[in-house]
Prior knowledge:
Shape: globular
Largest sheet: 6 strands, mixed
Number of helices: 1
Strand order of the largest sheet: 2-10-9-4-5-6
Strand content: over 45%
Structural class: mainly beta
Helix content: under 10%
Number of strands: 10
Amino acid sequence: VELVESGGGLVQSGGSLRLSCEASGFQFSTAAMSWARQVPGKEPEWVSCIYNDGRTFYSDSAMGRFTVSRDNAKNTLYLEMKNLKPEDTAVYYCAPGVNVATMRIFASSWGQGTQVTVSS
């Protein structure tokens, strides 16, 4: 399993970013995929997941601002983030799974993540 996140950056509060996660080494099209984020010294926080049938779920903090999607032809997961807030600042990771516990099954395959920094 290999996961490569990209698309992070520095944005002002209220700005937008689109994260991507390129996946390989497993059958992406049949896997539920999640995004999680982590700030130094804290446990990862689950953000969103999308099942293989397209159902999506979001954390309370992400609901209404973030949109998760997938392109099975490209083995790629996306996270569209709008109205970003300083508290969204974190390293964002993707992995198969529906929550942090199941994402951790693939912890050895987590990529470097992509840093999102939101300035106030």
